[in-house]
Amino acid sequence: MCSIKVNENTSLSQTTINDCNAMVEYLNEKEIFDATLNIPYPYTMKDAKYIVGYFKNLKLKSAYLTNWAIRNIEGKLIGVVGFHNGIKSHKAEIGYWLAKPYWGKGIMSEVVQKVCDIAFQKFKLLRITAIVFENNIASAKVLEKCNFVLEGACLKNYYQKEGKAVNAKLYALTK
What we know:
Distance between the termini: 30 Å
Low-confidence stretches: none
CATH class: Alpha Beta
Shape: globular
Helix content: 25-40%
Number of strands: 8
Structural class: alpha+beta
Number of helices: 5
Mean pLDDT: 96
Strand order of the largest sheet: 1-2-3-4-5-6-8-7
CATH architecture: 3-Layer(aba) Sandwich
């Protein structure tokens, strides 16, 4: 499996069926569910297998990997980063999650920076966006550390989650 080194302790590679147990373990954290739009709770093995297959199909359609497993030094999945719906033009939307035991260590900032570098160089993107829930301070900090600019400070009722309207913030990074 091809691996991209982020730093001495973290790498990126394709998700595989072997990652499903770690996904189920980590994504049954309510705080991750609360901060994301499309991760179900409780998170099941069926959900994990679906997302691994979805990422594989995106790769087959585009001939390149656009969603990666974030791995620790032992090679275990600790999160996922990638572009919603792959790369279709000059722009894409990035999304990510990281297992709770790895929060607050600067890992996601380094990962997002690496993935954005790849996107601008390899995929020739001109614009990368990220839309985060208004109350997701940690994700906003990650984006700001990676030089994303806040373009939309309050997208009123932008999402709906569990039947409730959720405000969001729009960040962008341009080449």
